[in-house]
Amino acid sequence: MRRLALLVFDEVKLLDVAGPSEVFAEANRFGADYRLVLCSVGGRDVSSSTGMRIPVDADVADTGPLDTALVMGGDVFPAHAVPPELAEAARTIAGRAKRIASICTGSFVLAAAGLLDGRRATTHWQHAATLARAHPAIQVEPDAIFVEDGPVFTSAGVAAGIDLALALVERDHGPELARRVARSLVVFLQRPGGQSQFSPSLRGPAPKTPPLRAVCDAVAADPAGDHSLPKLAARAGLSTRHLTRLFQEELGTTPAKYVELIRFDAAKSLLDAGHPVTATAYASGFGSAESLRRVFVQHTGVSPRAYQQRFQTSRRT
């Protein structure tokens, strides 16, 4: 028997709770023996992100020895600070467990409890940079679906909790049982690619310097155009060295990398709209399907065709 405690709180993401719970329950059908206990501060029932009430089995103080402690996430983090009593609850169950894991923004709870300091970790792609800024002692891996660092596991956003739960089942009972669970639930045992396939490439504020802003606008308006460094510098009326320095200071990247990301986002939009891979490569400025494939694999871990199949519409025309 393996005892698992799931730490929940008001506004917890319902799928963060339900997804992993279903994995462990399905594993029991194939011979595992997981015993799940939902716990909260004070043992109070909680309200989920959908408004659905979640009955709680126990107060955090009464969970007893555990094999695994899982801390759920919710949209409340990182918009609001983790309450001290919730961080203390995470420390409490972590002290009773052989391993601890977080789902999605549950990583912010572990971070507030000091349980991720000096470790590698991940969270939802939208909040990875925030986690890294708020907790510089954590080595945040923004593209990972889940991260294992010793006895501490963290997962990416929402449905990635299913991936993490399958990984825990595999470590407990081996790949064959985990594979049977994945097949039964109709999910990947190991999802191809990382979080980048779900996230926009370019994030952050617009450039402040007018010449740099004009250059960026021109690239965005015509991704397939000639955007060599001399051409960009001439458009800005700056030397290539000065323009390169502005890109680094304001955008944290090089002109070439910025152009590549603009073209990459343009290619994703064209693929989303159903355009063929070769036509997309030319229209977005990559010049060939092979060049587009190399960039796609570098950024997302999957090919353009695999990405298109994954996100194509379910409608039939």
Keywords:
seven-stranded mixed sheet, 11 strands, alpha/beta, 317 residues, single chain
Can you tell me about this structure?
Strands 5-2-1-6-7-11-10 form a seven-stranded mixed β-sheet, with helices on both faces. A two-stranded antiparallel sheet has the order 3-4. The mean pLDDT is 91. The protein has 317 residues and is an alpha/beta fold. The chain has 14 helices and eleven strands.
What is the secondary structure topology, with strand pairs?
Blueprint: E1 2-7, H1 14-29, E2 34-40, E3 46-47, E4 53-54, E5 58-59, E6 66-71, H2 76-79, H3 84-96, E7 97-102, H4 106-112, E8 120-121, H5 128-134, E9 139-140, E10 146-149, E11 152-155, H6 160-173, H7 175-185, H8 210-221, H9 229-236, H10 240-251, H11 255-272, H12 277-283, H13 289-300, H14 304-311
Parallel strand pairs: 1-2, 1-6, 2-5, 6-7, 7-11, 8-9
Antiparallel strand pairs: 3-4, 10-11
Helical coverage, percent range:
40-55%
Distance between the termini: 50 Å
Strand order of the biggest β-sheet = 5-2-1-6-7-11-10
Number of strands: 11
Which sheet architecture does the biggest sheet show?
7 strands, mixed
Low-pLDDT runs: none
Q: Strand content of the residues, in percent?
A: 5-15%
How many helix segments? 14
Radius of gyration: 23 Å
**SSE class:** alpha/beta
Large-scale geometry: elongated
